[in-house]
Amino acid sequence: MGNTANLKKEYKERIVPALLKEFGYKSVMQVPALKKIVINQGLGIAVADKKIIDVAISELTAITGQKAVATVSRKDISNFKLRKKMPIGVMVTLRREQMYEFLEKLIRISLPRIRDFKGIKSQLDGRGNYTLGIQEQIIFPEINIDNITKIMGMNITFVTSAKTDEEGYALLKEFGLPFKNENKSK
Question: Of 18, 33, 95, 130, whose CB count within 10 A is highest?
């Protein structure tokens, strides 16, 4: 676990000064920070098979080192055989140490394991947050491929305090997220 402080320390010592300079902030308090990472798996298939949720919870808990929780449906949708409060997904919200630790693993270990990986798209949400879609949970070293019953993807959302996409992008890029070199459109 001693590795976790790396990104946090790097943020304080290298990223903050770099962004201060790049955006001409008046104070360090204005420099965008990573607030939390939310990892979410939508598992519509779980409606038919309750075990999928349990498996997903244990997998996501293993990946993040924090207990994952089931997300439940908000209303009945008869076409999908869905009842209110049925578990239909799994999520985890990481903050502070766990967040940095997960980010570090993601960048250094997991993303490079994606086949034909050429970087991630740089589309932020308009408010400086970024969601990365992962197709397969097997890129995480905690997942034992022999025990996998189903390939499940997930969305990883990086919530920043940035006011604009440009600032959010700069922050995440400084953290080492491997964005594709595409022309950034304003």
Answer: 130
| CA quadruple 98, 101, 107, 110: dihedral sign | negative
The residue to which tokens 């590795």 are assigned: 3
pLDDT interval class at 28 (50, 70, 90): confident
* Whole-angstrom distance, CA of residue 36 vs CA of residue 93: 7
Handedness of CA 12, 18, 23, 26 (dihedral sign): positive
Strands 34-42 and 130-134: unpaired
**Rounded distance between C-alpha atoms, residue 108 and residue 151, angstroms:** 22
Share of the chain above pLDDT 90, in %: 31
Amino acid identity for residue 84 in this structure: K
> pLDDT of 56-103, one tens digit each?
888 889 889 999 988 877 776 665 566 676 777 888 999 998 999 999
Closest CA to 110 of 121, 102, 99, 118: 102
Q: What is the pTM of this model?
A: 0.84
Q: What is the per-residue pLDDT for 1?
A: 40
Distances (CA, A) of 3 to 61, 73, 85, 100, 104: 19, 38, 39, 10, 9
